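Form 7-S
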Amino acid sequence: MNRARTIALILAGAFETLACSRQAPPPSAATFNKDIAPIVYANCASCHRPGGVAPFSLLTYKDAVLHADDMAAQTRMGHMPPWQPERGEFPILGERRLRPDQIAAIERWAAGGRLEGNPDDLPAAPVFTDGWELGRPDAVLTVPRAYVVSPGVEDVYRNLVFRTRVPTAVFVRAVEFKTGGAPIHHAVIRVDRTSGSRRRDAQDAPPGFDGMAWHSVQDPDGHFLGWAPGRGPIASPEGMPWRLEAGADVVVEMHVIPGDEPIALQPEIGLFLTPTPPARTPLTVKMGSKMIDIPPGKRDYVVSDTYELPSPVQLLSVYPHAHYLAAEMLVTATLPDGRVQSLLHIHDWSFHWQQDYRYVTPVPLPPGTRLTMKYTFDNSEGNPDNPSQPPVRVRAGPKSTDEMAELGLQLLPASPQDAARIAADFDRRERIANVAMMEARVREEPQVAEYRAQLGGSLVEAGRHADAVPHLEAAIRLGDRSAPVYSYLGVALMEQGQAAEALGLFRRAASIDRHDERLPFNVGNVLSRLSRHPEAAAAYERSLAINPDFVDARVNLAILLSAAGRTKEALAHYARAVALRPDSAVIQNNYGGALAAAGRYTDAIRHVRRALEIAPGYPPAVQNLERLHRMGIR
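Output:
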């Protein structure tokens, strides 16, 4: 063979080898033990396990093989694991998104024989201590009786009230929510420092009460506690636990899909505590619009809101909220130099899988940054989630058949002063929005007593007392003779100097609702303003008989008792108020002043100093400290 022939044969062989190498080798058969179990354990087990929220377990081969087709279909469509946000420039903590190779492995396994595989390839299954992902909680909250969801087709929104019964305030570093096997689609965990939710719960025999966004509940200390299947424990950022006060209730608003059989709703809440108080406290504020009025058939109705930051913040998390008609959500930050950053983009919103989203690393935003939310709603027949077929007009409101467009922001401002300024901005925005919404409703339907009452109440809360009076009086004429209407009218008149007239209205409100501690408290306040102190003290005592943990009534009663020389009784009320609300500079300082008047100077200076730790430079505390120093108390 000549040299040229030999080289030609070698080159031909080389080219043939290269051509073969470009062809992907046939994929090996996937097995549960080697390929599927690691995916399930890392991404599915928190729900799909015995006692989990999902309707079936996937922890074993025998469990998973029964659902192989569903696993392949749901992961291919992106429905499982449930995760709404698109991948953006700021990674989100706890992202539940399978990689393409993991989705392909599940499809290969489902289509290729559903093999179990070599037992030696099976990784250790996750272990849940008594069913809790974080281990044994420091406290477990339960409700004494289950609420039974009847069979049906309409979604159920039920609030259950959990009594905490902690003797003193505690700091919560994490919360874990267990459904007890009920098909709960999402839950929002809040705190009620009043007896409002308890009283609402007691209005009928079944546990809890219906509805959404009950007015007396609040997010705890700048934290969103939103749970959705697969979310897992809700841990606070490092160094930022939240305070659960003595006497406060935990209220959980749940969205449940009924089935063909009754469902017992009796979840548990695990609290994981820390003795260390927060080094920093975040601030939660809410953007959005209440001027929502979506015509039937409208496919691209847009709601937007913008806020310009007056000072630097770190954005810790966002919590988008809307109902069934929302289709797309976009949240951006426009920096002072004009650059636009995408903070959150949900291309296909689902009301069933809502939760808050915390960034892996806080997003720094300088002053002058414009935060913008843009939500698009689809009120057409083509929206499969539209609860009305054919579509109907939909306006803002708390019912699931109404709509909402809200964006919660969890911020970490640079200073307490910055936090106070931002909080005041958003409080003002909220009050203005409430008035604007109800003014529109009253213009459209001026003879509806409910709208008149809500407008009057919104005007009172906005400080427009004279404007509120005619609407509240109209509500009464139109048939609304509820305690809140008389109470709001009383506040409006009292703030205009008509204390005697206000007293009659407050007393009437208290006679209508004998279970609301705020109503006799209002009576006490107006009596105190009229210098009828013994009657005022009796009113505060009636308020405390309804709710012994009502701090404001204890403080006001203590002030009257101190002035009357009943020092021992006053100190007892102050001590309980401090235990219930230890981070109040006003209460700490007032207690310090009362202790000093009783000659207990060492105790007095301790509480005055505590007031100044909470609020440096607080003038009344500074004055009390100077007085004690002049007396030689250090």
